[in-house]
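Lecture notes, unit on binding sites. The following record was shown on slide 14. It pairs a sequence with octanoyl-coenzyme A.
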Amino acid sequence: MKQVVISGTGLYTPENAISNDELVASFNTFVEEYNSEHAAEIQAGNIDALSPSSSAFIEKASGIKSRYVIDKEGILDPKRMKPFIAERSNEENSLQCDMAITAAKQAMEEAGKTAADIDAVIVACSNMQRAYPAVAVEVQTALGIQGFAYDMNVACSSATFGIQAAANAVENGAARCVLMVNPEICSGHLNFRDRDSHFIFGDACTAVIVESKDTANSSEQYEILGCKLQTVFSNNIRNNAGFLNRCDESGLNKPDKLFIQNGRKVFKEVCPMVATQIGDHLSELELQADQLKRMWLHQANLSMNQLIAKRVLGRAATEEEAPVILDRYANTSSAGSVIAYHMYKQDLKSGDLGVICSFGAGYSIGSVIIRKL
Ligand code: CO8
């Protein structure tokens, strides 16, 4: 069977960062204004008063200290609480295309590839900014890549599922080399007025080059030993925004047209599924957990990652074994595990094993076991 490798990665990080304190100050101003505007109804018991948020809660419950965003001003304006993202003309690159190009160029440089070496582009992320044409085709054309391109969405697991799709294309000869990108604009579909989730997400874009070992010439290559994907339907993480919304106007402004979740249930149900999947995946490849040098886990919640790593290893993992980026980036959906991989891979030695693992809405879980060559 053809050896398939990851030969380069790239990362686009927006310039603006929002600290917990900044986010909480804006949220609490909104709460004060709401409660005073609705004082009579609250007093009469017709509606509930809103409760304030707190930085201490956010850091303790999630491990998040800050997040990068495309636009800071609109999010922090208590009268608006959503980013300002101006519509662009059809003649300009879309925002997701621009994010993808920045990350892709870095990944292509690391892999030593030009557009002529790449045969396919996959854009894999939680939300596409339009229905069609596919953002992937726009990215493909902007970079001057021949061949084919398509978009796919498996929420937080889009990148690992995208790596498998890329590896399959290389293995079966459909492409020599694939560019897989994850432009995540999570701030666009986050409800900044919801105390339970306003702190969870940030924006970023990652890129991965997947190619045949035969064509790879970068100094760092990671052989894909196997990809394992799993989906189990759950209503605990949902976003009901879609093209049919306009057909029933009564639902247009309901909160379910943005990200909603039952965070406690997600935590409880997903952690054991992920730990079991990594264990099973290792067994299928006749590998042991103690051979794993690194786990680049989905970055949603610090306690979740510590619990999963502990279940896999049978002991607490060190930060070196399960690196954390969510303190700075928050949850960037599918980009999270790839950001961790991008930042914390260089120190591995030839022969070292690692797993890139995502989990999220669907539910969806993806694990990619790799070995540094
Ligand atoms: N400030 C202060 N207090 C708060 C706040 C706040 N902001 N929010 C809640 N509280 C209070 C609650 O009211 C509650 O009070 P009480 O005990 O009196 O009822 C108390 O704090 C505890 O609340 P929770 O039970 O909600 O707190 P948890 O400890 O469970 O932490 C988390 C909440 C952080 C959400 C945690 O449950 C978690 O991380 N769960 C897993 C989440 C997860 O991994 N989700 C995956 C979704 S990501 C995904 O799949 C991608 C989707 C696509 C991307 C979407 C982009 C927008």
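Take-home: The radius of gyration is 21 Å.
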